[in-house]
């Protein structure tokens, strides 16, 4: 009797979905990045039920009826064509797995319209299968409604955290995307209440709108972003935000460089706050390390480390008084958010 067999399509899709859609936050990250790749200047996200039900709408280029049907197929993408394109990635998505993975474990309604079409198209999808397709009146752009995420994989739901924790995770990824794309307007509503709103009027406005005026006043601009003074020293490294080619990432090398540059200025058990923006030749980095695309590898890590550390040290040498606190941080909303977060990763 043969023991090896080809998996059924529904099983293989569920496995793929498990890699891409670990939880509501990872799903939302993928959908936001799809909207950004579509050239959206405004992205609105509404979430309910701990993120198991969401609606995301954007002002992007939209999809034709034909592309809408293709969008839920695995490895269907407009971002890359050959394997060489993997080493020249400027888009957020490129695998063509996000929508197909989400569709396979949810009840989905996709509505979209392109500028050259008089009508939009609405497509209902259940467990990865199209159940209805019709023309609708719609503005240019795309709206995706997700209902009952993981409805057909109940075991996955057992590993989700309580709603308040999921909402904190969603807020975390949303603010990171807003900081990475400060010229895009972002709106987040949680259970009908507005949680985050940015104007799309640049990075300093985004910092102000997300963290509050006192945070902005305690940040100083330098060649690679923004550095926080002693008022913004924290108990962990989560206040070090790293953005590479407009993508929010985790980078141990960059974090270590920031901490090393601050080393003599830090009190024991404290870490700096910083926003580091790097623009690097896509051929010199690999974002295809993990399905989440949150981890990157550098072709020359030592160069990146030396660059970041050197630029921060240069800034300190030009402004010896910078690190001293000069404005008290009194943003109660941000401080309350942190206390609730406790050991959960957040800024």
Overview features:
alpha+beta; DNA_mismatch_S5_2-like; Heat Shock Protein 90; Ribosomal Protein S5, domain 2; DNA mismatch repair protein MutL; 347 residues; DNA repair; Ribsml_uS5_D2-typ_fold_subgr; 5-stranded mixed β-sheet; DNA damage; elongated; 33% helix; disordered C terminus
For the record, the count of structural domains works out to: 2
Radius of gyration over C-alpha positions, nearest whole angstrom: 21 Å
Report strand %.
15-25%
Secondary-structure element string? HHEEHHEEEEHHEEHHEEEEHEEEHH
In the CATH hierarchy, what is the superfamily of the largest domain? Histidine kinase-like ATPase, C-terminal domain
Sheet with the most strands?
Answer: 8 strands, mixed
The average pLDDT value, as a whole number, equals 85
Runs in which pLDDT lies below 50 for 5 or more consecutive residues are: 14-18, 326-334, 340-347
Shape: elongated
Total number of strands: 15
* Architecture per CATH nomenclature, i.e. the level-2 architecture of the largest domain: 2-Layer Sandwich
Protein name: DNA mismatch repair protein MutL
GO molecular function, one term: mismatched DNA binding
Organism: Fusobacterium periodonticum D10
Keywords: DNA damage, DNA repair
Write a short abstract of this structure:
The chain is of the alpha+beta class and 347 residues long.
Description:
- This protein has 347 residues and is of the alpha+beta class.
- The chain folds into 2 domains: 9-198, Histidine kinase-like ATPase, C-terminal domain (Heat Shock Protein 90); 213-318, 2-Layer Sandwich (Ribosomal Protein S5, domain 2), CATH 3.30.230.10.
- Helix content is 33%, strand content 22%.
- The chain has helices at 9-20, 24-37, 65-71, 98-104, 154-157, 163-180, 203-211, 213-218, 252-262, 301-318, 332-341; strands at residues 42-48, 53-58, 107-113, 120-126, 129-136, 141-147, 185-190, 193-197, 219-222, 225-228, 240-244, 247-249, 274-278, 285-286, 297-298.
- The longest helix has 18 residues, at 163-180.
- One of its GO terms (cellular component) is mismatch repair complex.
- InterPro entries: DNA_mismatch_repair_CS, DNA_mismatch_S5_2-like, HATPase_C_sf, MutL/Mlh/PMS, MutL/Mlh/Pms-like, Ribosomal_Su5_D2-typ_SF, Ribsml_uS5_D2-typ_fold_subgr.
- Belongs to the DNA mismatch repair MutL/HexB family.
- One of its GO terms (molecular function) is ATP-dependent DNA damage sensor activity.
